[in-house]
Structures are given as structure tokens and as C-alpha cells.
Amino acid sequence: MARRNDHRPEELKALTLKLVDEFLQNEPAHQLSLRKAAKLVGYSAGTLINLFGSYSYLLLAVNGETMDRLADKLQQAIEAASSPKQKLVAMAHAYQVFALTHPHHWRLVFEHRLAEGEAIPEWQQQRIDRLLLLVAGCVAPIYPDIDDDTLQLRVRTIWASVHGIVQLTLEDKLFGSPGVDGGKLIDDLLENCLPVGSQT
């Protein structure tokens, strides 16, 4: 087992996040615990508590890295498309691909809860804001005449709809006939079900 002084704090934090990330590639978060995370890195549970503040904040730090990777994938999808509507569709598909490729990471982002009354740290809120800004950047040109409050509502409505499709796809609860998949539902949603304008 590694000794306490084998790594500097930032090195140990990076190592912990790396090993937990590798764990989530194959196992769901509910199979992890503080004790198991400590065993992965070869340090005591107390050392990880001192490093992250709590097991909950360790998971939040993992979520932060996941959201960074997700945002990068969405940004790449946006940059590869041309019109605002195509960017929105490409981003929605990239979101689905990410969830299907990293299901345990994706679930942890949405299932993890801080203790009641505990505020989301600023560094995590910035990640949430970045994702919403990516969506808003695609939606705003489609609706050039709406005010900011309406735009923010529309951004959340569209993305909540995409998120719901992705979640049902991931849980295999679309209840459709063979051949119906989340990708087709996303296309139908953005093409027909929401008035996303005439830009193609």
C-alpha cells in the first residue's frame, strides 16, 4: 500500500480521480464506496476525506471532470455542423452518444445529490452554466425575436426533452417496436415536435 507521503496532495487528487474514472468505465457508482475508493488508490479513507472534504465531494469532483469531457464533445459536434439547427441536432446526438458510451459516468452526474441545504460549489455551477450556454448558442439564432427569459425557458425545455429521450434509451424503456431508437426520436423531436424554426 502506498504511504501517505508518496504523493503530493494535487498528485493524489489527480490519481484518485483517474482511478475512480477507470472504475466507472466498467462498474456503476453504487458499487463504489469511500473504502473502496481508498483501496483503489492505496491510501486511507481518512486521507481521501482530508483531500476532498467528503466522499460526496469526491464524487462531485468526478462529475466535474465528466462534465468537462461532455462539454468538449458537444463543442466538437457544434463546430462540425453549419446552421444553428444542424448544430442543435448534432449536439443532441453527441449527448446521446456520450451517455451510451459512458453510462456510469453519465448516471452519476444526475443521480448524485449533495446533503440537504448544501449549495453547489461555484466550480461545479460553472460547468452546468457552460453546458447550458452551448445549448443556448444553438437555440438563440433560431429564435432571434424572443427575450432572454423566454430563451432560457426554451433552452431548458428543449434540452430536458433531449435528456428524457437519452435517459429512456439508456434504461431501455422506450417501449417501442424493434428499430425505434433514441436517435430517431431526437430527430423527430427537433424536426417536428418543437417549433425550432425553418433554418436547416
From TrEMBL:
Protein name (Swiss-Prot/TrEMBL): TetR/AcrR family transcriptional regulator
Keywords: Membrane, Transcription, Transcription regulation, Transmembrane, Transmembrane helix
Alphabetized Gene3D superfamilies for the sequence: Tetracycline Repressor, domain 2
Domain of life of the native organism: Bacteria
TM annotation in the entry: 40-60
Xref: SUPFAM superfamilies: Homeodomain-like (SSF46689), Tetracyclin repressor-like, C-terminal domain (SSF48498)
Domain spans labelled HTH-type transcriptional regulator MT1864/Rv1816-like C-terminal: 88-189
Taxonomic placement: Bacteria, Pseudomonadati, Pseudomonadota, Gammaproteobacteria, Alteromonadales
